[in-house]
Design a protein that fits this description.
- InterPro entries: CheY-like_superfamily, NreC/VraR/RcsB-like_REC, Sig_transdc_resp-reg_C-effctor, Sig_transdc_resp-reg_receiver, Tscrpt_reg_LuxR_C, WalR-like.
- With 215 residues, the protein is of the alpha/beta class.
- The chain has ten helices and five strands.
- It folds into two domains: 141 residues, 3-Layer(aba) Sandwich (Rossmann fold); 61 residues, Orthogonal Bundle (Arc Repressor Mutant, subunit A).
Length: 215
């Protein structure tokens, strides 16, 4: 039986993933967490990497982002195999996640059987990538290109850029990321500075031109 821990801040999402995996027959969800703190407490109950075969981890968590959590876990001697399951499209975060140590990346809006296949693959110690991600990896190897400005942004800065470009107000972003409006404003200022832009309209145009959001 493949043992799985879920870490997602939305209870309904966790329930949907749990039910999907339970239907597979060979997968058991042995624990759930809503943020990094809860995940740490949960994993302390299973010392020396015995907590699970696969940690299914969301990117958009309160406090530490999922990619921040991933990097912390990768520094530990008994790091779990992590499968990122996120609402963000593959072209925004998949390569970042894989480089940070994830064993796979699946979009929440994808086929449920894809999630089951991903968990089984990762549990075997193998990487799981969709055809779209595989194509991006091939292109990055065969046609290397100069690093784009937004690729230098931190995970939270990139999230802030995408959400602003999607039309969300700073207060909405703060609530979604479980951050203070002041902190979000700081991220926005950093994004503007790093991209050499001056306002939200320019941020939106930049995001559309670079395929970060749909126009």
């Amino acid at each position: 039986m493949i043992k799985v821990i879920l870490c997602d801040d939305h209870g309904l999402i966790r329930r949907g993933i749990r039910d999907t995996l339970a239907d597979a027959g060979d997968i058991s969800v042995v624990g759930e967490a809503g943020d990094y703190g809860e995940l740490r407490e949960l994993m302390r109950k299973f010392p020396e990497g015995g907590a699970c075969d696969v940690l299914v981890l969301d990117i958009n968590l309160p406090g530490r982002s999922g990619l921040d959590v991933l990097r912390v876990l990768m520094d530990e001697p008994h790091a779990p195999r992590v499968l990122i399951v996120s609402m963000y499209p593959e072209d925004q975060y998949a390569i970042r996640a894989l480089r940070a140590g994830a064993f796979g990346y699946v979009n929440k809006g994808g086929d449920t059987q894809q999630l089951v296949a991903a968990v089984r693959t990762v549990a075997q110690g193998r990487k799981y990538v969709t055809p779209e991600i595989a194509q991006m990896l091939v292109e990055s190897l065969t046609t290397p290109s100069p690093e784009l400005a937004h690729q230098k942004l931190s995970d939270r800065e990139l999230q802030t850029l995408v959400l602003i470009a999607s039309g969300k107000r700073l207060s909405d972003i703060a609530e979604e990321l479980t951050l203070s409006p002041k902190t979000v404003s700081v991220y926005r200022a950093r994004v503007l500075e790093k991209l050499g832009l001056t306002n939200n309209s320019e941020l939106t145009v930049y995001a559309i031109r670079n395929g970060l959001v749909e126009g």
